């Protein structure tokens, strides 16, 4: 198995900064996805996992964005979707906190296009927004987000069309081709406006508005994630959704069951991961 000790040290350092900032400004965050499974099943990182995820409700997320740039240490940086390639390069709508002294991809024209920001170890920041209660409204909200994403893909370094069916491939080409004619800053602004459109409503459900389209199906009951509990994680305690069992059951099913041995691989297993942890650091 790959030795991910330094990878986990770097990501733990980022998680600790997120925790520190949120507690200082009375904001809430949630360990999410595989990181939440790790907290519940391993009381730390999944041993073969080499990334980390955090979610926030809209109010906490907006508050975090105001203070994080000045609070983060020099070894870390908040990277927003509209900052890549001079504001003209799109990868997705997910902000990241990167650990600067690391690398997960070999240098290439593509990594250079994204200013070297996406080839760093990072923690992704996902946003939970209000989802309309009626089925039609919910479908429209998610459909609009998927459509904007498709348009924004026109500003990617390249399109990976191999993973799509012929019909979906044609739609992606059409959407991306159209989106290429629209300034990316407009699309980022539109995505933000539409994601927030129901923020003042106490809807029953929340959804991850800045997920990639194939994950927009994930819908959570508001009560699962608007309150937090603290779970042990790598010798620390981090905020997790109060309904962590319901969240994980809904998304993963039997989340306590380990995957087959041949599936226990890092996401970036094909690349030699480099990370520099200063000897006197306290991750």
Question: Overview of this structure, please?
Answer:
The structure is a single chain. With 283 residues, the chain is of the alpha+beta class. Helices cover 37% and strands 17% of the residues. It has 9 helices and 11 strands. It has helices at residues 5-24, 33-42, 58-71, 109-113, 135-152, 166-179, 184-195, 222-225, 244-252, and strands at 30-31, 52-57, 76-79, 96-99, 102-103, 122-131, 205-208, 219-221, 228-233, 236-241, 274-275. The strands form 3 sheets. Strands 1, 2, 3, 4, 6, 7 and 8 form a 7-stranded mixed sheet that branches. Strand 9 and strand 10 (236-241) form a beta hairpin. It is globular. It starts with a helix and ends in an 8-residue tail after the last strand. The model has no long low-confidence stretch (mean pLDDT 93).
């Amino acid at each position: 198995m790959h030795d991910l000790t330094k990878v986990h040290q770097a990501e733990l350092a980022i998680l600790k900064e997120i925790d520190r900032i949120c507690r200082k400004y009375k904001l809430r965050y949630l360990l999410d996805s595989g990181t939440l499974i790790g907290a519940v099943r391993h009381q730390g990182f999944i041993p073969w996992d080499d990334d980390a995820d955090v979610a926030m409700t809209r109010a906490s997320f907006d508050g975090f964005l105001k203070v994080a740039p000045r609070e983060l240490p020099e070894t870390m940086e908040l990277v927003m979707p509209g900052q890549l390639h001079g504001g003209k390069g799109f990868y997705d709508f997910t902000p990241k906190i990167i650990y600067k002294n690391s690398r997960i991809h070999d240098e290439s024209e593509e990594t250079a296009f994204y200013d070297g920001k996406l080839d760093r170890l990072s923690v992704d920041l996902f946003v939970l927004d209000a989802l309309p209660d009626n089925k039609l409204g919910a479908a429209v909200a998610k459909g609009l987000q998927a459509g904007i994403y498709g348009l924004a893909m026109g500003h990617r370094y390249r399109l990976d069309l191999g993973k799509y069916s012929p019909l979906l491939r044609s739609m992606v080409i059409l959407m991306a081709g159209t989106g290429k004619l629209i300034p990316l800053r407009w699309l980022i602004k539109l995505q933000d406006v539409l994601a927030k459109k129901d923020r003042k409503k106490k809807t029953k459900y929340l959804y991850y508005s800045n997920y990639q389209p194939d994950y927009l199906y994930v819908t959570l009951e508001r009560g699962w994630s608007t309150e937090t509990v603290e779970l042990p994680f790598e010798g620390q305690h981090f905020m997790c959704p109060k309904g962590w069992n319901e969240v994980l059951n809904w998304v993963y099913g039997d989340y306590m069951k380990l995957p087959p041995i041949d599936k226990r691989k890092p996401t970036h297993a094909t690349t030699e991961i480099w990370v520099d942890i200063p000897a006197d650091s306290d991750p």
